[in-house]
Design brief:
Blueprint (H helix, E strand, L loop, with lengths): L1 E3 L3 E4 L4 E3 L2 E3 L5 E4 L3 E3 L3 E4 L3 E4 L5 E2 L4 E4 L7 E4 L4 E3 L1 E4 L5 E7 L3 E3 L5 E10 L3 E3 L5 E9 L3 E6 L3 E7 L5 E6 L1
């Protein structure tokens, strides 16, 4: 199934699963639940997108998130225990992906790509974005407990980038 709207706010007291394509036009997206699962569909928005998993996990590995918002906080993953990312695209202007209060590890599913102008935030566990299709232009004010980042093409570091007590490996690949 598919949903088209000009913005979307949804607060759910349990786990939230999205399947099919969701296009929110120019409107802001706020999804709050106890765990969030993005099925095989695509969540598309030109407005700022905030996904809040509360005390649950983000399972986004088979879906895609696409933002044409030009701000570094185009897509924010808030709270949650762990995150498995699928395809993430925020490449308009300074479009970015922000981790805000994730208590555990953040990884990406095999064969997916994170393509963002800016990557920032705080991850309580290890951050592993190591797939060959990644394109991360700027890592800005990012902290985790261990960090593995791979990006095709140039990648710059801005602000404090802290891998904590874990191993830190940041490199570009061709």
């Amino acid at each position: 199934s598919a949903l088209s709207s000009n913005g979307l706010t949804l607060i759910n007291t349990g786990a939230l699963g999205l399947s099919g394509n969701v296009n929110t036009g120019n409107g802001v997206v706020n999804l709050t639940s106890v765990g969030l699962n993005l099925g095989t569909g695509t969540l598309t928005s030109a407005g700022a997108t905030t996904l809040d998993a509360g005390t649950g996990a983000f399972s986004l590995g088979t879906g895609a998130m696409v933002s044409t918002n030009a701000n570094p906080n185009a897509i924010t993953l808030k709270n949650g225990t762990t995150a498995t990312l699928g395809n993430v695209t925020a490449t308009t202007g300074a479009g970015g992906l922000v981790f805000n209060g994730l208590t555990g590890a953040a990884t990406q599913a095999t064969g997916t790509a994170v393509k963002v102008k800016t990557l920032s935030g705080t991850v309580g566990g290890a951050l592993t974005l190591d797939q060959a299709g990644n394109q991360i232009d700027t890592v800005s004010s990012l902290a985790s407990t261990g960090m593995t980042l791979r990006s095709a093409g140039a990648m710059s570091l801005s602000g404090t980038v802290n891998g904590g007590t874990g191993a830190t490996d940041i490199r570009t690949i061709d």
